[in-house]
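Thread amino acids onto this structure.
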């Protein structure tokens, strides 16, 4: 994808903001849009091209805002529409674009159309916008099929007149019926609404979901996790995405924010499942989660990268090492395994074991992420090396994954703890009030303030990497060529033209760096003994 017209999103570094945990301006303990605005200077210094805001819409917060009750408004706890407009404008003055989250698989059970469906009779027009069915069993007392909610428990809830409605996630998140024309029209409007307000693009939540097999057949349970099924990766999706692409492309590309993008959240069993999404004319981009799924091991990482590169590069399938749904890299890499739901519990049982190893590998992973061809996403706090917080009190936890699994699964709150901005003080500079999730005692040590002047800090590493990435002609879009370090176990080395070499030692004995002129940046000390395990370096060649 190195030829042709250059679109900004093909090599953008996008910073994911979880607004409720980023910065709070009014002391209610909940991060908000004015708080985010006040920290745009920090993001500009970091050197990101865009921010993706996870949902900031009115919501009863059954799932951290992914239960939307009004798609065209701002949650009053987070600000006003005026605040959103001001954010877009001020971000633009820093050359930062704003991507918003579109949540089309489901809404909130508080959404007026779902309330109308509940108030209406079985078989009504109102109910047909959602997926209502009679139950099985003698009296309809059993759910219509055996589908499970992704958060645990059944995917169906019964309403007083005896029908059941489908929710692949929480009870408070009824699935839309994408075979209904009203639903199509509603989302066309929502997309235009945010693009008209200057959004540079959309992150599409659960983009592998939406359409369900009309017969709602039982799940055989035999297929691998996230494989195509009656409710995942349905063929109808691609026509829908072509129609959304036409909307995106109908916005003039000249000037800021340029061509609009959409990046689909598509969880998959194997990279090949992404292929239909990568056909021309569909969503501009889908995330590839290879660096989240792969364990910290040379062959596993290389295989993961090649699996995607065989289909597309990161300009269509951006790279990512973390987000608000998975344990933070600095903790995840303490284990020699790729992400699986439930991993947070195992991290909890580690105590302080391997803490330094995890942080060291996360620094190397950051250099890998930012050296791969195409676009990359950074989740807030990754640049500070924040660990997963595994010891939140149970009564503070809010994630439905925790609540619906009866605590078996620790859930995702541990990667959503509000950011530390200052070394000390109330909320470590996040809020003058009490943060909505408690911050650990040592949180100030990770703060932007504590790390800013320290050349050895995570923050300094990210700043330097982003600066080099902007300046170096080999980085961003393009291709990579693996350097044959065969016979050197643990080595993960590739060249990018012109004149750039990436070298990492995942897990082997120290080895000599490939031929190079100088070390541009390294994630840790590189001495005469060679590149130690868990270390990466950017080299000029
Ligand atoms: C996506 C979001 C996640 C949410 C789920 C349901 O996976 O990233 O946070 O819980 O969709 O909307």
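Threaded sequence (541 positions):
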């Amino acid at each position: 994808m190195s030829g042709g017209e250059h679109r900004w999103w093909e090599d953008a570094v996008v910073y994911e903001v979880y607004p409720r945990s980023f910065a709070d301006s009014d002391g209610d303990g909940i991060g908000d849009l004015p708080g985010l605005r006040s920290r745009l200077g920090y993001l500009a210094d970091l050197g990101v091209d865009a921010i993706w805001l996870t949902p900031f819409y009115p919501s009863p917060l059954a799932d951290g805002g992914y239960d939307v009750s009004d798609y065209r408004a701002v949650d009053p706890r987070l600000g006003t529409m005026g605040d959103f407009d001001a954010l877009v404008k001020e971000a633009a003055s820093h050359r930062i674009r704003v991507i918003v989250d579109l949540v089309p698989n489901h809404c909130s059970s508080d959404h007026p159309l779902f309330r109308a469906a509940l108030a209406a009779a079985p078989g009504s027009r109102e109910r047909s916008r959602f997926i209502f069915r009679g139950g099985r069993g003698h009296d309809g007392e059993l759910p219509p099929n055996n589908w499970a909610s992704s958060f645990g428990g059944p995917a169906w809830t019964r309403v007083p007149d005896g029908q059941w409605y489908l929710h692949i996630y929480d009870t408070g998140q009824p699935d839309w019926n994408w075979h209904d024309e009203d639903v199509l029209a509603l989302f066309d409007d929502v997309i235009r609404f945010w693009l008209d307000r200057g959004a540079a693009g959309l992150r599409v939540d659960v983009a592998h979901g939406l359409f369900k097999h009309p017969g709602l057949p039982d799940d055989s349970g035999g297929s691998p996790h996230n494989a195509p099924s009656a409710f995942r990766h349905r063929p109808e999706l691609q026509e829908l995405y072509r129609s959304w692409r036409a909307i995106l492309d109908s916005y003039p590309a000249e000037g800021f924010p340029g061509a609009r993008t959409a990046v689909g959240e598509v969880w998959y069993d194997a990279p090949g499942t992404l292929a239909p999404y990568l056909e021309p004319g569909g969503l501009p981009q889908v995330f590839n989660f290879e660096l989240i799924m792969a364990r910290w091991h040379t062959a596993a990482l290389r295989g993961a990268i090649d699996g995607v590169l065989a289909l597309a590069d990161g300009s269509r399938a951006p790279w990512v090492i973390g987000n608000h749904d998975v344990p933070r890299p600095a903790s995840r890499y303490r284990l020699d395994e790729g992400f699986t739901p439930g991993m947070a519990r195992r991290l909890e049982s580690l105590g302080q074991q391997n803490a330094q190893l995890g942080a060291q590998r996360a620094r190397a992973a950051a250099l890998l992420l930012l050296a791969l061809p195409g676009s990359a996403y950074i989740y807030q706090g990754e640049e500070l090396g924040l660990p997963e917080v595994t010891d939140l009190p149970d009564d503070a936890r809010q994630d439905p994954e925790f609540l619906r699994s009866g605590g078996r699964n620790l859930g995702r709150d541990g990667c959503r703890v509000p950011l530390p901005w200052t070394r000390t003080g109330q909320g470590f500079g996040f809020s003058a009030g009490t943060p909505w999730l408690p911050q650990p005692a040592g949180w100030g040590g990770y703060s932007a303030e504590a790390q800013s002047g320290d050349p050895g800090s995570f923050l300094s590493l990210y700043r330097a990497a982003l600066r080099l990435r902007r300046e170096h002609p080999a980085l961003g879009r393009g291709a990579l060529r693996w350097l044959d370090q065969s016979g050197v176990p643990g080595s993960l080395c590739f060249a990018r033209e012109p004149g750039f070499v990436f070298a990492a030692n995942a897990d082997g004995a120290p080895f000599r760096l490939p031929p190079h002129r100088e070390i541009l940046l390294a994630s840790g000390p590189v001495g005469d003994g060679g590149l130690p395990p868990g270390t990466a370096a950017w080299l000029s060649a």
